[in-house]
Write a structure and sequence with these properties.
Length: 229
């Protein structure tokens, strides 16, 4: 699994840690809930259609300026290449699928998006939350978005192996199964382009650095751009 290989490659470059310490390091991401969200968006044009991004710290440009994150870079590309579209980033560092599910109705009403990008679940996995709970929350977000007339791009995530094979594999399958069931656009793993490159991450070995963000933008763009046609 790419994510597993990436995790252990990171550890070889860091100070020696035990497997338990590895798990603790991952749990630190949960405490990023104290960091406020970066609401990056393009200026709305008259009658512009909206791309709404519902994500966690990976989409909220954690540790960077908002303008450096992949969502803001996507907004710049949209502004230049997709007239009539804008991007609203409603991502919050530390957000769980429960948080996203509780906010989605309000965001849909407020922004009336034509496309919803859902990048949530990592914090569920880090906390070891029940897979069915994560699945139900993501499914609620998908259903409400589609009921509001929006196309959905579901962005998947993978977990390190410390919670066991069954949980790790079940977590990964959740995204693909939901996408297939509800016929959404799908990106299996947000961090795939940089997962094996320790130098692409900040000192916490969790969050991508600024120079890695264009790779994430380009990776997401492959799945997002067809929804804008």
């Amino acid at each position: 699994m790419i994510f597993k290989s990436w995790l252990f490659k990171n550890l070889r470059y860091a100070a020696p840690r035990s497997r338990i310490q590895c798990a603790i390091g991952w749990v630190l991401l949960v405490f990023a809930t104290l960091v406020p969200a970066s609401f990056a968006q393009t200026a709305p044009a008259q009658g512009a259609r909206t791309i709404l991004v519902m994500g966690d710290s990976l989409s909220a440009a954690y540790g960077l300026s908002a303008a450096q994150g992949w969502v803001a870079l996507t907004a710049d590309r949209v502004n230049k290449t997709q007239p009539g579209w804008r991007v609203v980033n409603a991502s919050i560092s530390g957000e769980t699928t429960a948080g996203g599910a509780s906010r989605i109705a309000g965001e849909l009403k407020r922004n009336r998006p034509a496309v919803v990008v859902i990048e949530l679940g990592a914090n569920d996995g880090l906390r070891g939350l029940p897979l069915q709970q994560t699945r139900s929350n993501l499914e609620r977000m998908i259903k409400l978005s589609q009921a509001a007339g929006a196309k959905v791009l579901l962005v998947g995530m993978r977990m390190p192996p410390n919670l066991g094979r069954d949980y790790t594999q079940g977590f990964e399958r959740t995204f693909g199964e939901l996408s297939k069931l509800h016929k959404t656009a799908f990106l299996p793993f947000l961090l795939e382009p940089i997962a094996l490159d320790r130098g692409a991450f900040q000192a916490d070995n969790l969050h991508p650095i600024a120079t890695a963000q264009p790779k994430l933008r380009d990776h997401v763009w492959k799945a997002l751009s067809p929804l804008l046609e």
